Amino acid sequence: MCGVLQIMNQLIIKELQLGDEVAFLAMTQASKTYHHPWVKAPITQDEFIDYFNRSQKENQKSYLLFLENEIVGVFNISEIVKGNFHSAFLGFYGAQKYARKGFMSQGLKLVLHKVFHELALHRLEANIQPGNSASILLVQHNGFRKEGYSPRYLKINEKWCDHERWALTIEDWRQHD
Length: 177
Description:
Elements: E1 5-7, E2 11-15, H1 21-30, H2 32-35, H3 45-55, E3 61-67, E4 70-81, E5 87-94, H4 103-118, E6 123-128, H5 133-141, E7 145-156, E8 159-169, H6 170-176
Parallel strand pairs: 5-6
Antiparallel strand pairs: 1-2, 2-3, 3-4, 4-5, 6-8, 7-8
């Protein structure tokens, strides 16, 4: 299968496709209250189409983590910059049904492999709201280090939210992996 990596527990990660709409919306609608207030995931057909179209831009990648035929999580690599920077931002959210089972950590490992090998990036940054302890633990357990704090960094659900900046370079990833 092109663009798919597989690991134990029959988890696979693949790039977002239009045909994923039904499974994607089922997951985001079922997890809407779980995601709030941390992220505003697409929950309508129009929002999914907008999200899909953004994911097709050269500087964006969206990966879905599947367990059999169900989506366990979503990983977005955005604002990919090459040249001397070779960096991007990481965003992610998981399905409430599979929360705290370790699947997102396994999926992040697959994404990091893609980011550092296939996309040939040097650095990946995750910006996480300070109260989102599950997301902070996820990046910590995968080798990210806290680099700082950004007040009113990102507008989520019509509110400017503070974020902690976490980052991982390829050198740190090689040591951690």
